[in-house]
UniProtKB/TrEMBL annotation:
It comes from Arabidopsis thaliana x Arabidopsis arenosa. The keyword Secreted does not apply. Belongs to the pyridoxal phosphate-binding protein YggS/PROSC family. PROSITE patterns: UPF0001. Keywords: Pyridoxal phosphate. It holds the Pfam family Ala_racemase_N. Signal peptide: none annotated. GO terms for molecular function: pyridoxal phosphate binding. This is Pyridoxal phosphate homeostasis protein. The modification N6-(pyridoxal phosphate)lysine is found at K49.
């Protein structure tokens, strides 16, 4: 494949990405209106895993600021090549040995959405303190589908973990809960309702108003349903950027 062809296909993908983003914004607005909610309380995180920097830049230049990545290696390679006012969300499973490279490599990381045990919370807390960056917002990831393949704390453990983050991790800001849903990425209403129930329990225990506690739920296949059931943060990948491009084995 020649360079011109690659450039043309990247350019057309970028135009498609910008059009797709506008379509997603419209669908979010409609879903919010249907649910009697204010759409500016719902954040769209454009999930750019496996996508090139050029494509992310095009979507950024169309006015979008919130982007999400699943892999530490990918986000630390991309973030320095892109504008500093992008608000990066890390949404993948995070291992302890990757915390320092992530936080050092991405100063404009605004949120880690996938805290699922005390060990990773403590590690994030320690590294944030050591590198002297401002407190980091985190979400506690809850496994609402009960699948063993899924990361996330059991629903029965979400209050305990949220409490630990809030009370024992002074460099972290507990900001809410996240769930992924089913294996095929379509969630049943039960997954979302369970996360909302967890939020009620957490807020009651911590004495914080529910509107200060985010619900990150809903992806390309089910974000309208998630908004109907209270999501404040939807994570949209393929609907904006097209299908994932994994390297051929």
């Amino acid at each position: 494949m020649n360079k011109e062809h690659v450039a043309d296909s990247t350019m057309s993908a970028a135009i498609d990405g910008v059009a797709a983003l506008r379509s997603v914004v419209q669908r979010v607005n409609q879903a919010a209106e249907k649910a009697g909610r204010v759409s500016d309380r719902i954040r769209i995180v454009a999930v750019s895993k496996t996508k090139p920097v050029s494509l992310i830049r095009q979507v950024y230049e169309a006015g979008h600021k919130s982007f999400g990545e699943n892999y530490v290696q990918e986000i630390i390679e991309k973030a320095p090549q892109l504008p500093e006012d992008i608000e990066w969300h890390f949404i993948g499973n995070l291992q302890s040995n990757k915390v320092k490279p992530l936080l050092s490599g991405v100063p404009n990381l605004v949120m880690v959405e996938s805290v699922d045990d005390e060990k990773i919370a403590n590690m994030l807390d320690r590294v944030v303190g050591n590198i002297g960056r401002k407190p980091l917002k985190v979400l506690v990831q809850v496994n609402t589908s009960g699948e063993e393949s899924k990361f996330g704390v059991e629903p029965s453990g979400c209050v305990g973990l949220a409490k630990h983050v809030k009370e024992a991790c002074s460099n972290l800001e507990f900001s809410g809960l996240m769930t992924i849903g089913m294996a095929d990425y379509t969630s049943t209403p039960e997954n979302f309702k369970l996360l909302a129930k967890c939020r009620s329990e957490v807020c009651k225990e911590l004495g914080i108003p529910e509107e200060q506690c985010e619900l990150s739920m809903g992806m390309s296949g089910d974000f309208e349903l998630a908004i109907e059931l209270g999501s404040t943060n939807v994570r949209i990948g393929s609907t904006i950027f097209g299908a994932r491009e994994y390297p051929k084995k």
